[in-house]
Amino acid sequence: xxxxxxxxxxxxxxxxxxxxxxxxxxxxxxxxxxxxxxxxxxxxxxxxxxxxxxxxxxxxxxxxxxxxxxxxxxxxxxxxxxxxxxxxxxxxxxxxxxxxxxxxxxxxxxxxxxxxxxxxxxxxxxxxxxxxxxxxxxxxxxxxxxxxxxxxxxxxxxxxxxxxxxxxxxxxxxxxxxxxxxxxxxxxxxxxxxxxxxxxxxxxxxxxxxxxxxxxxxx
Length: 219
Prior knowledge:
The chain is α/β, with parallel strands linked by helices. Helices cover 49% and strands 14% of the residues. It has a six-stranded parallel sheet, with helices on both faces. It is globular, with a radius of gyration of 18 Å. The mean pLDDT is 89.
């Protein structure tokens, strides 16, 4: 039987919570089933409503998103958690990921990225905001966070590793094809396999995976 992805949004600003309703109103396969204004209320709502995905702010009164995520993941490991953050909270994002969140969104996200992130998390993947900063990459590389630590490590071919390194250096498909003397279509195939093997949904996700697993070093 077809069912929608059930989502709870937690943020201490009511206007932002309402904004997420607006962003998702055209998504026929996603439904916001509850809201919370702090971490403690979030845990209560999760116990009552049993969502598939939780999107939570990091800094909230009563109980912050980090502690709420830590408790939620321990009690409900099958529920995916997305951190909701501002641009200047890189150190808090790392703490959220270490607490068990599977990725993060910026608060100025659009409807397409929001839906993509929810679906990725629901399907057991990770999702990292498109605008991951170099500083955040460095902080994640130095942290304990590893998006693949609960999964068997995939095997990459030499070509896939080369493509992954160039992706991390922000080369586009055509540029990678020229550098490696391949067709653009071949590069696209490599990229698809890299996305599949890493479980990443964005270029930022591939970059973080590569950093944490020793395939790419920040220069």
